[in-house]
Design goal:
Layout lengths: L6 E7 L6 E7 L5 E8 L12 H12 L6 E3 L5 H4 L11 H7 L4 E5 L13 H4 L4 H11 L1 H21 L6 H13 L4 H9 L2 E5 L15 E6 L25 H4 L2 H7 L6 H4 L7 H30 L4 E6 L2 E5 L5 H8 L2 H8 L3 E3 L11 H6 L13 E4 L18 H10 L1 E4 L9 E7 L1
Parallel strand pairs: 3-4, 4-5, 5-6, 9-10, 10-11, 11-12
Antiparallel strand pairs: 1-2, 1-13, 2-3, 7-8, 8-9
Helix pairs in contact: 1-3, 6-7, 6-12, 7-12
């Protein structure tokens, strides 16, 4: 086998709303090493067969010749790990992946079972010796451990939100979507924990991938631990310099026009609920709406906290750099973006997996502005971008939170060689992108 790969093929699978990328490093004479980054979905486009996830699992098996070298599960959300679910009799998609015998599973430090003092079941059984935990404590610290416990509670809160009754339709859809996304996914979590050697990473730590991928350097840029930074705890969701929601006016897009429009008598007032006089209907609607909005707010916060546990990886082969940030949002990015050594890495990125399915707050302006290979004219060295997404699942156009965010998509289209899974026909399982070194 050659000392370094000659090319890499990135297979973007069509999982609807979710992520699934297979990186195949080609070392020549038929020798390849495969790394699977995420495998999950929270929604398939209409018309797709229910067997889609199993079709993909089998396709991964075929593509890898039955041997996967490593798995990266960027974070615990369903749209990134549901494909790792197992079923009785070994019939789950996660059973197929497990049968490919990966040597290593990479996850964020927040998934480390040693750090959860309240863990039960298989987690508790897997606990290492006290000495080992103390070693980790030196690197990670007590505030980080509290964070892990808090994250584990979040799954329970999401579960409760799902059972809430009598909510207005306007919030029901998003509440249910975010609730589902944040459920515990127990079988997938346990499968990831036990299918291979585990590497729980944080900013600056070793990935463990180097020995599996000769000639490839892997940099871990996130997530930071709580001790590394406390910015992860502060949501900066309205920082106008970093986000894509305020770009509409500058671009003169339809969003700016929509913002001016006020709907005077929305449909709910005309609803046929004649038990209440028309003004009371207005009050009743808003009272329910407030409760719904508050619940949504809480679930949105939980959702963002979990996104901020995403592993951010840069694969470096010679001078070529591939950036895979999962769903990392600004608070996760900030720690790496503040450091010179990572700034120069990010500046020269050649391929960018668009963060969080193209949402407004996962491609911070600082990051976007760093990308040196962006260009309005097509040329071989132009930045490539890959996005896995599905419209209509997450956020709303009127609040400029829709995913994918139109202003970001415009920028990706005009300044990168852009691919989104939305370009695929329903029956297409994947699209390949190749980089030669
Ligand atoms: Zn996601």
């Amino acid at each position: 086998m050659a000392k370094a790969p000659k090319k890499v093929k990135i297979r973007t699978y069509n999982v609807g709303f979710g992520d699934c990328f297979l990186l195949s490093f080609d070392y020549g004479s038929g020798s390849e090493r495969h790394v699977l980054i995420d495998f999950g979905s929270t929604g398939l486009p209409e018309g797709l067969p229910a067997t889609r996830m199993m079709d993909i699992a089998n396709q991964i098996k075929q593509r890898t010749n039955g041997k996967l070298h490593a798995v990266v599960a960027t974070h615990r959300h369903k749209d990134h790990i549901s494909g790792f679910e197992t079923k009785k009799g070994g019939k789950g998609t996660g059973d197929v992946i497990r049968s490919l015998k990966p040597k290593l599973v990479i996850q964020p430090w927040t998934e480390d079972p040693d750090l959860d003092p309240k863990a039960t079941g298989p987690k508790a059984k897997m606990k290492s010796s006290k000495k080992k935990i103390q070693g980790k404590l030196r690197r990670i610290g007590p505030d980080s451990i509290k964070q892990v416990t808090a994250l584990n509670y979040m799954n329970g809160i999401a579960q409760q939100m799902l059972t809430a009754r009598n909510l207005p339709m306007a919030v029901k859809g998003e509440l249910s979507f975010l609730g589902q996304t944040n459920l515990a996914n127990r079988s997938a979590v346990e499968n990831l924990m036990t299918m291979a050697k585990n590497s729980y990473v944080h900013c600056g730590s070793k990935s463990g991938l180097e020995s599996l991928l000769p000639g490839v350097k892997v940099h871990v840029l996130g997530p930071p631990t709580v001790e590394q930074t406390d910015t992860i705890k502060k949501q900066r969701s309205s920082d106008p310099d970093q986000f894509w929601q305020f770009q509409a006016k500058a671009l003169g897009s339809d969003d700016a026009v929509a913002e001016q429009k006020q709907i005077l008598f929305p449909k709910y007032v005309e609803a046929r609920d004649s038990r209440f006089p028309i003004r009371a209907r207005w009050l009743r609607y808003h009272a329910r709406m407030m409760r719904g909005e508050q619940m949504l707010q809480i679930v949105r916060m939980l959702d963002q906290q979990m996104n901020n546990t995403s592993v951010i990886l840069v694969f470096q082969i010679g001078k070529t750099l591939l950036l895979f940030p999962g769903d990392a949002q600004i608070e996760n990015w900030q720690f790496a973006l503040d450091q010179k050594k990572y700034q120069s890495l990010l500046r020269n990125v050649n391929l960018y997996k668009v963060g969080h399915h193209g949402s407004r707050n996962a491609t911070p302006m600082d990051l976007w502005n760093h990308f040196h290979n962006r260009s309005k004219t097509k040329k071989p060295a132009r930045l490539k971008s890959l996005m896995s997404t599905m419209a209509g699942k997450h956020g709303h156009e009127h609040s400029k939170t829709e995913v994918p965010r139109s202003t970001l998509v415009h920028a990706l289209e005009s300044e990168t060689d852009f691919f989104t899974t939305q370009q695929l026909e329903n029956k297409a399982l994947f699209k390949d992108t190749e980089l030669t070194f």
